[in-house]
Amino acid sequence: MEIKTILLTALCFTTGILFGVDEPYEITDILTANSPSASRSADWKPGEGIALEVSGMDFMPDGRLAVAIRKGEVWLLDGVLGGSADRVSYKLFASGLHEPLGALRDGDSLLVTQRTEVTRLRDTNGDGVADEYLTAGRGWNVSGAYHGYAYGPKRDGRGNLWVTLNVDMGDHADNNAPWRGWGGIITPGGDFKPMVAGMRSPCGLGANLAGEMFCVDQQGTWVPATPIYHMRKGAFFLNPEGIASQNLPGSPVKLSAKVPQKVPYPDAVHALPEMRPPAVWLPYNKMGRSGTDLAVCNAGGKFGPFDGQFMVAEFTDAKISRVFLEKVDGEYQGATFPFLSGFASGIVRLLFADDGSLFAGMTSRGWSSLGTKSYGLQRVRWKGVTPFAIREMRAKPDGFELVFTVPVDAVSAGNAASYSMKSNTYFYSSAYGSDEIDIRPLKILTATVGTDGRSVRLKVDGLRELYVHELHADGIKSANGEKLDHAAAYYTLNRIPKN
Fold this sequence. Notes:
Layout: E1 5-9, E2 11-12, E3 25-32, E4 54-59, E5 65-69, E6 73-78, E7 87-94, E8 103-106, E9 109-113, E10 118-122, E11 132-137, E12 150-155, E13 161-165, E14 183-186, E15 192-196, E16 204-207, E17 213-216, E18 226-230, E19 263-264, H1 265-271, E20 280-282, E21 291-296, E22 310-314, E23 319-328, E24 331-340, E25 347-352, E26 358-363, E27 375-382, E28 390-396, E29 399-404, H2 410-413, E30 420-428, E31 436-449, E32 455-461, E33 467-472, E34 488-493
């Protein structure tokens, strides 16, 4: 096997992030496609280089960043946490994989999920190159269909190793084959154990700080808008195209009724007991079009005031949104907020580093993205400036409580006219996506500023379970006179709290 080592200089610049004059976050290029000012090693020749179409990332024990790329290689990158003048080295670690779409360090080895299996890569002789390719997980069908992807692996708080499987699409599609559109865990013996059904393109997995696993799916057939699922045994979500596997041995999902069609989504949930609602909907266009990954912020304040929340990657709009979750009556629900935009390409993978920085791995893969590059790797760091933002939106029996990152102006925040709300749901059918339906304006009766100066209690008339509640807080200011960086929030109300 040929060993390649390439040196590139990291470029440092801040893109448009829509956060006001004093940008609280800085985006740094580690590598982007066709960067003309990148300096290369002396032996570099035109046409050579790495198409770093990132499909998986994790840090190895020695601090190097392992990056899987969709065309079947894994590279080790050294120096990605350094300053803008540091040189970043790239060394080929593994090759010959079949479209790996995830990477996870496991001790001194690296787990990658390719279409056929989870593979353990090990360097046993210390030369920096994997010389063992061992099967670590298997047991699902591979049809050769264009969208027959496998994603993961990610660990939950109990140590379970999760993978998810796309439904087949296009030529050679066979969704009657085992476990298409399902998610499950890899047993200690390396077998696939199905846990949940009803997904379409479940590209991204991640555990919250409580150790419970979540997954972001993508809008399409049967999926009205981008959902984030709470993964737990026996759940059925949205897409029934792979439901034939419920008849296989080991299936934890047995639908007790026919899948409803052409009904409002809340009616579908009531008609099918096994259908579990998404923890959060990300409304189409308003919050993105193709969610791809999620990473929980556990940076100890080094990434700003958002510890405990999910950062959610968006492919088409090349941006990152933010999700706050809470559990009400045993069901996760919460709000999504705009966060960062202006990335170089469609984001596929997110990864937090120990220093609190967030890495975004990207590839357009020939699909449509607002990013101007075809692939790349960028690093996001907090600059110490706290943005004026809605940090949390919590459900209450008669409305919502907003928690802000900084103190609010009591006059504007305490004025009900500073806010507007409406709710909507979606049409559940086999069609590709759905418009918002059953839209209803909601009256905000009162707005009461908390004694802490950072919270506001909104009393709202007309809450509806299983509906998205859209908030706009354009009228409020901070105590220093600032406007909100992002005035919109979208809360998925699965359960109205009793107290």
